[in-house]
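Pasting two entries for a bug report.
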Amino acid sequence: MKVKITAVRKTEYKDLMKLYENPIKNACDVKVGQVFISENGEKPNDLCSSAWESMEKFVKELSQGGGNFFDGWMKNEKSAMISCNDGFRPVSFYVEVIDE
């Protein structure tokens, strides 16, 4: 099954960045509205590896016909809302099955 991964929100915690982060040259390149497609539970080539680590188990479960995470957490049981693990500039991704 194919799973669509859509970046729906991106934020920055500038106060935390100022306190704790060393300056970096290349921060997250993901844009809100950007879409990635996972086929058979595989990582899309252009998706950030850090974001993939956060969502991999959900995408793989959905691609194998699973869902209903945490007993009714999502209105669409064949979906999940996952944030990447960047504590300074997290991106929220809506992950959903697009074919069955």
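Entry 2 (this is the one that rendered wrong in the viewer):
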Amino acid sequence: MIFNFEQVHNYYERAVFEAVARLSGSYPDYDAGMLADVACMALNRLPARYVRHDVDMMFYLSEKERAAIEESLHEALAFAFTYVGQRHARQPASA
């Protein structure tokens, strides 16, 4: 038997990556490394939800559950952008 797990992924990965890309224009001082850190921080604050197809998961959620997912995504991103920005500001400038 051959197994194909290529479609399996954490639902939040795509959502976080797309949100970071969309919001990056509001953070012009964040370089690519900082944006990657933001994505990591946000993902680490969210639960893992592994799916094969994003649409399948969303189909089975109630409106209340969808709203909770959006709120948790928003909170994780807000925290991550703030945290990464503050950490970067505290680092000494390299010569």
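Dev reply: Rendering is fixed now. As a check, the viewer should reflect this: The chain has four helices and two strands.
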